[in-house]
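Hey, I'm writing a tutorial for new members on how sequence and structure tokens pair up, and I'd like a real worked example in the thread rather than a made-up one. If someone can provide the structure for the chain below, I'll link this post from the tutorial.
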Amino acid sequence: MRSRAGLPRGVAIANVALMIIALFVFQRVTGHDDRTEVRPGHAPQKTVQGPRGQQPRGNGAEDPAVAPAGHVTATKESARAAKANELGLVPVLMYHRITAKRWSSLDRTPGQLRKELERLAREGYVPITAAEYVTGRIDIPAGAHPVVLTFDDGSPGHFAFDAAGRPAGRTAAGVLLDVARRHPGFRPVATFWINREPFGLKDPIAQEHAVTWLVRNGFEVANHTYRHPDLRRLSRKRIGEEIARQERLLTRRGAPPSVTLALPYGSLPKRKNQRVAHRGSWKGTRYDFSGVFLAGAEPAASPYSTDFAPYRIPRIQSNGKGGECRRWCSTYWLGWLSAHPSRRYTSDGDPDHISIPKKLQGNIREKLAKRVVAY
């Protein structure tokens, strides 16, 4: 497959390989998750609301929020000065287990996660959630680049409370919060797509503590189906049941209606059933997603672009450059984007306008034309 953005060939092969690895990992080694002790935290504290009624932009009273980008009004001059290109590519990074010892190629250690987040911060990336990305609510400073950090399956290494009721330091959330403290402006938010036992917790009260803390502190907690099946093997009715049952659980645990869905193994349903993967109902529970995410293996189109395909959004596996990852994982793609800055999404600092070089005017979605600042 070759995207219209002109990216290299071979993405389809990489995606199939990644699905096979993910299937093996989920079925064979789920018992090897990081054994961080999980304890219910204290009741989540209130946070300062972000601009325009969005979710909090930072991480709450315990970890002060990153200051909002500021509501500048983009002009041709300011857009040119920022080298803005809001039709550029967005890296959506995909993580699975964060564990002290890697048991598969999909695993990352806390140290590897920290190293990648530090790189992103140094290179001017600002995290946004998957929901913010698919709905076009990208509110970051001028000259910055959005990155979407996504964590699949809700394993114990993603989120846990320590004895003081704070996110444990070696979990994904703990590492992200610490990197954000060291790099002001690196917004500590991510998307956690979870199944029926969020973060390995079996107690409903502990599950609610975890989900509610994340939601109140600006993170997205959303649908990854109830049992993590391969949706391609299921009937339309079974697909709807898997998604709706998980949506019910999320609601009971304190999450808002899911805006996004990550497909288990990155596997799309059969063509005749694909619509039910983003809109449907089961026994009175309805769902309607603005974005559905695959499992690999290239940067995603801007949500304002004519190339944007909201129900099959690619992600980039977090990994080095060895083996199959030499051209398809995060180390390669972050290097590629750095070497091709004109292809990367760069913000104008104004969430109400879309700034682009004039030569790209034909690539904007028609209904957004009135918001364009072309220079």
